[in-house]
Write a structure and sequence with these properties.
Strand content: 15-25%
Number of domains: 3
Helix content: 40-55%
Radius of gyration: 20 Å
Order of helices and strands: EEEEEEEEHHEEHHEHHHHHHH
Shape: globular
Number of strands: 11
Number of helices: 11
CATH topology of the largest domain: Jelly Rolls
Length: 294
């Protein structure tokens, strides 16, 4: 997954089979998941270690054997807890995998209401409930299947994900639709602000301009931004800039001063401080580690 983009541009799977699975280990001194979103749904399962995951405005501490569900279009991010790092498996899939793109009973009764937020589905999946435990067991089988990919793999993946979603819906409650709609509208405005930052991060960005771009007062915008992203606008702008700098450090041999200027920092010392806060090392050390790693 390209962690440098807010809305993921990559395609997960293919139009004929819109699903991909990922298996990673993240060291304790590295970012786990930068804030992003995608149109697909996702089950994210921790297989070793612990992680702090944020889905929408909900924070979850997730231990090995537990998972979170990320609805379509929901902002989410995560960080490593503890000193051992975290291993995880994730399955990212488009709703069309469950029922196809044409209307049918499965799509109309289950998939469409889920996409439209008409169900309050749990974010954290643990073993305190029978259906949740069964879902976790099935996810474990799904990720093991992905490692072996036997004949009939695609049929099995589709069937298992359909069962996962059916178990998820058993855990759901009917949403308070007016409240849900208002929350979704607020989130969409913050997404627009995040995309504004993505387009203009190399330029000076004033809070007033950012708030005006999404038709909010500056004070309300700052409060809402912090509530949804868990960061102030300035913190997020700096975070996005150092993520872009990290890409340039890995992919070019340009001077660090030039990179800092290109991504929007006007003070090298401040750039170094923000970079170290995010990556746990200086830009020079980060570049050296990347070269040593291949």
């Amino acid at each position: 997954m390209d962690k440098a983009l807010l809305k993921e541009a990559r395609r997960h799977g293919s139009p004929a089979f819109p699903v991909s699975m990922y298996h990673y280990h993240c060291p304790p001194d590295q970012p786990l998941l930068d804030l992003h979103w995608h149109e697909e749904m996702e089950f994210f399962m921790v297989t070793a270690g612990r992680a702090s995951l944020r889905v929408g405005t909900e924070n979850c501490e997730v231990s090995a054997g537990e998972a979170v569900f990320v609805p379509s279009g929901e902002l989410h991010s995560g960080s490593v807890l503890g000193g051992e790092g975290v291993s995880f498996s994730a399955v990212v899939f488009h709703a069309d995998l469950l029922s196809g793109s044409s209307p049918d009973e499965i799509r109309e009764r289950f998939v469409r209401p889920l996409l439209e937020g008409k169900y309050e589905v749990p974010v954290l999946l643990d073993r305190r409930n029978g259906d949740s435990a069964a879902l976790l067991d099935l996810l474990g089988q799904l990720f093991e299947l992905d490692r072996t990919r036997p004949f009939g793999y695609e049929l099995a993946v589709r069937g298992m994900l359909q069962t996962c979603v059916s178990l998820l819906l058993r855990l759901a409650a009917r949403a308070d639709q007016p409240r849900r709609t208002a929350a979704a509208q607020r989130t969409e405005r913050i997404k627009a602000a995040l995309e504004y930052i993505e387009r203009r991060y190399a330029e000076p960005i004033r809070l007033g301009d950012l708030a005006s771009a999404v038709s909010m007062s500056e004070a309300y915008f700052c409060r809402l931004f912090k509530r949804i992203t868990a960061a102030t606008p300035v913190e997020y702008i700096n975070l996005y800039r150092v993520r872009q700098a990290a890409i340039l450090l890995r992919s070019t041999d340009r001077k660090i001063t030039d990179i800092a200027l290109e991504v929007g920092f006007r003070n090298l010392s401040y750039f170094n401080t923000v970079f170290r806060q995010r990556f746990g090392c200086t830009p020079t050390e980060y570049r050296r580690r990347g070269a040593a790693g291949g």
